[in-house]
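RETRY 2/3 - previous attempt timed out on the joint model. Re-submitting the same 479-residue input unchanged.
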Amino acid sequence: MKTLITGGTVVNATGTAQADVLLDGDTIAAVLAPGSTLLGFDVAGNVDEVVDATGKYVIPGGIDAHTHMEMPFGGTFASDTFETGTRAAAHGGTTSIIDFVVQYAGENILDQYQLWHEKAAGNCAIDYGFHQILSDVQDSSLTAMDELINEGVTSFKLFMAYKGVFLSDDGQIVKAMQKGAQNGALMMMHAENGSVIDLLVQQHIARGETTPFYHGVSRPWQAEEEATHRAIMLANLTGAPLYIVHVSAKEALAQITQARDTGQNVFAETCPQYLYLSLEDQLGASSAEWGDFEGAKWVCSTPLRSKHEGHQHHMWQGLRTNDLQVISTDHCPFCMKGQKDMGLGDFSKIPNGIGSVEHRMDLIYQGVVMGEITLPRWVELTSTTPARMFGVYGKKGVIQPGADADVVIYDPNGHTSIGIGEGRTHHMNMDYSAWEGYEIDGHVDTVFSRGRKIVDDNTYLGRKGDGAYFKRGLSQYLI
Ligand code: DUC
Ligand code: ZN
Ligand code: ZN
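RETRY 2/3 succeeded.
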């Protein structure tokens, strides 16, 4: 199958150009001056389909480097399966995800890795890779890290929070980081001080402060800043490269900035919820159906931060200064009915997570509309840098000959209404939207995954199982 995308503005991280893009089979065959001929042949006359992208952007498919499909967590499972979650991602212009293989204490990470393959294989709409979570850092896990690198799992996530579930103590973290320093793996960190949070949670509950708002209050920025600093110090001690996930506090960002300024290999991501939503939104949330439990829709960790303290503004700033390099979603959806409502009367029992995998490209495009970031930076943060950070750049994250034909045609004059109410239909398996009522200037018109048109004009044309596992190399920022 040959497809020629004509008349569009190709946007790469390096800039924009008027160009036609030829897809041949799985790959991008050529990026051509508009209306070019190839060896005397009229290109458009020799393809199966010509797609007119006049007035539109032609961008590399989005890469969401932080998702949790079907994650067993909080006494339930994240509500999107690999099938529903990746189809929703495709609708939103994301053509790759990197999901986390979960390990709880006592489990064998290689068994878990196989289990995640079983969950994903034959179900995904788009291509996918895996990171590996390490919780109890067994000696056998350290050996298995080398094996997983050969399997294309080159990043390992540790948690400084969720005691008894995921939390690794500092000694375990150092052990895992020593291994990362040796084998080149990127060490990812959920940086929140779990002991402090657990104490504050107990104290709020004991005082009868049980509504979802207290989830955020019990996870203060100091707990994020302290853990971020500690993670940076432990990485410094061991020489491991470090990637801090879901940064939300400006003080944590300042720690990252300082470490980067000294030349340490510290990287970080933020997520759309930390750019647009706030703790005050959560406090004020109320509905006829849920009363003040409405705020459960935005219970996630790290939590939403106060807009009076200016965290959101600092996140945008960090994205411009490159102290934050990636925007992922931490897609971890739960329904209100039957899942989030387990925390009625006790916020600590609300499963933590927000679903955004479908909306990341649109939401971050609003940063371009609002003048917070440039058009190439939009592509860089959502596609190119995730590709480089996690070792798939060249095949993914760029419109260039030889790259996988993961291509999105984005209409800046289009419009997207997000949500599930009044004729809006998101595709994530959730009974609410954390983004209900968001009106987006822009629209994902057409999505190609390795040359196959999988979404066109809001219609899904792909099949489950189209997506393939990709083995990743080591981070391309480190070699
Ligand atoms: N934070 C969430 O909100 N959900 C999944 C795990 C996490 O760290
Ligand atoms: Zn996390
Ligand atoms: Zn996560």
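Residues 61-389 form a domain with the TIM Barrel fold (CATH 3.20.20.140). Closing ticket.
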